[in-house]
């Protein structure tokens, strides 16, 4: 074994491991002998690709990673948001000994780069022996050698360039001819179901995060959503979801998705479901519209369904050529003006009354006032403005008008927590 301070000899051992044909694990095994410390290589989604350690290894954090085959979600969530740590790991120079406050030991860590793209990272734990500046320099060489090995690793390339990834990218880019579609479907071996959705996730601040975050979040979405394929498309994560049921957001899934989006500081848009795969680009555009409108009209929300925002999309289109206020029921305009003049809340009362299917008890409970107060207000509204809120036609006209006022931002009350009865 070469002396630990003999850089050329140690580097030669690593290069010999590269050319030995023993693969990534063979290189990692030699690295453990050289560094006399545990070594691990993971892909950009924090999945373990290869590792080696001494038999007496008792670091519970490390052993848990090895046992599960990937880094714990809470650890990943903390380190990928650490910009200072990212700069150190992604730097072009010699890596420094790191401590992130989560892992119990210090370590060397550096991205593994293939074709100028970070496809993973390597870590050497300071456990059996104190790591020196010599080790840091040699570890940089080790990561470069790992990059060469991964570049020729067809399995790893498949993980980042799946046939389905290219197909989805092609489909959402624009309409395709039917003969092309049928041929591509045979090639990619994708099975669609009766109810398919496009889900697009973006970061709340609209800024693209680090590459290792993107890869991790992509894999996390696929794990969270059964029967899904997630790709990175420009600055978004686009997920094709296949279902037999048009109700995508069941109670359980909705909560899990909400939690995931909060953890990753992302928002998402969801398209109408569709059966015709050739229309995938249309539903991708729907999802982008849901995100655009949802950010403006539903601030603070994480999930924007196009089905609940489609009216606003229509208003957006119509508003480019027409004054939308001309479509509103003039009676509602009078009620809003009356509220602004006299400090009443008739417009909001009528909104909630119609939203709860003209049920005064539910309306009173929502507004936290007495049922008799609701009855009085509804009677006054009908007397003052000559409307019949019990009429189906009036209910539709008012609901339509409320939507326009909300879109224009001229409602005198906030409807962001107002539920779903008038949405969509």
Helical amount among residues, as a percent range?
40-55%
Structural category is alpha+beta
Low-pLDDT parts are 154-160, 418-424
Under CATH at level 1, the class of the largest domain stands as: Alpha Beta
Q: Summarize the main sheet.
A: 5 strands, mixed
| CATH superfamily heading of the largest domain | GAF domain
What's the overall geometry? elongated
Just name the CATH architecture of the largest domain.
Answer: 2-Layer Sandwich
Descriptive account of the structure:
The chain has helices spanning 7-19, 23-35, 60-68, 73-79, 83-90, 133-151, 154-160, 163-173, 178-188, 211-224, 251-264, 280-297, 306-318, 330-342, 346-355, 360-367, 371-385, 392-408; strands at 39-43, 48-52, 107-114, 117-125, 195-203, 228-233, 236-243, 266-270, 303-305. With 424 residues, it is α+β, with helices and mostly antiparallel strands. Helix 2 packs antiparallel against helix 6 (133-151), helix 15 crosses helix 16 (360-367) and helix 16 crosses helix 17. Helices cover 52% and strands 14% of the residues. It has 3 domains: 7-159, Beta-Lactamase; 163-311, Alpha-Beta Plaits (2-Layer Sandwich); 324-408, PucR C-terminal helix-turn-helix domain (Arc Repressor Mutant, subunit A). The strands form 2 sheets. The chain has a 5-stranded mixed sheet with strand order 6-7-5-8-9, with helices on both faces. The protein has a 4-stranded antiparallel sheet with strand order 2-1-4-3, with helices on both faces.
């Amino acid at each position: 074994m070469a002396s630990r301070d003999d850089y050329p000899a140690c580097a030669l051992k690593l290069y010999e491991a590269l050319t030995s044909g023993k693969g990534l694990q063979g290189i990692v095994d030699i690295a453990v002998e050289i560094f006399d410390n545990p070594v691990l290589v993971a892909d950009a989604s924090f999945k373990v690709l290869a590792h080696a350690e001494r038999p007496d290894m008792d670091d519970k954090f490390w052993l848990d990673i090895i046992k599960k085959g990937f880094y714990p979600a809470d650890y990943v969530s903390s380190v990928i948001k650490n910009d200072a740590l990212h700069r150190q790991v992604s730097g072009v120079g010699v890596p420094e000994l790191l401590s992130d406050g989560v892992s119990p030991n210090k370590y060397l860590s550096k991205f593994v780069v293939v074709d100028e793209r970070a496809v993973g990272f390597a870590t050497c734990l300071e456990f059996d022996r104190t790591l020196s500046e010599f080790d840091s320099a040699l570890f940089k060489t080790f990561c470069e050698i790992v990059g060469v090995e991964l570049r020729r690793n067809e399995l790893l390339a498949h993980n980042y360039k799946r046939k389905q990834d290219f197909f989805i990218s092609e489909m959402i880019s624009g309409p395709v001819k039917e003969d092309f579609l049928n041929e591509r479907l045979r090639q990619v071996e994708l099975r669609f179901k009766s109810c398919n959705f496009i889900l697009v996730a973006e970061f709340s601040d609209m800024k693209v995060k680090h590459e290792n975050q993107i890869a991790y979040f992509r894999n996390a979405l696929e794990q969270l959503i059964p029967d899904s394929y997630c790709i990175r498309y420009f600055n978004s994560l686009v997920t094709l979801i296949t279902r037999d049921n048009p109700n995508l957001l069941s109670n359980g899934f909705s909560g899990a998705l909400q939690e995931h989006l909060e953890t990753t500081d992302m928002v998402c848009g969801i398209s109408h479901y569709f059966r015709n795969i050739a229309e995938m680009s249309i539903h991708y555009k729907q999802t982008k519209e849901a995100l655009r409108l949802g950010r403006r009209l539903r601030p603070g929300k994480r999930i924007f369904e196009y089905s609940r925002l489609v009216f606003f999309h229509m208003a957006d289109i119509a508003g480019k050529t027409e004054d939308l206020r001309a479509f509103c029921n003039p009676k509602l305009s009078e009620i809003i003006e009356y509220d602004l003049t006299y400090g009443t809340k008739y417009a909001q009362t009528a909104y909630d009354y119609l939203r709860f299917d003209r049920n005064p008890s539910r309306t009173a409970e929502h507004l936290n006032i007495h049922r008799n107060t609701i009855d009085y207000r509804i009677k006054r509204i009908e007397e003052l403005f000559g409307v019949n809120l019990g009429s189906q036609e009036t209910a539709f006209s008012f609901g339509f008008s409320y939507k326009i006022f909300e879109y224009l931002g001229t409602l005198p009350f906030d409807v962001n927590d107002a539920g779903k009865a008038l949405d969509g």
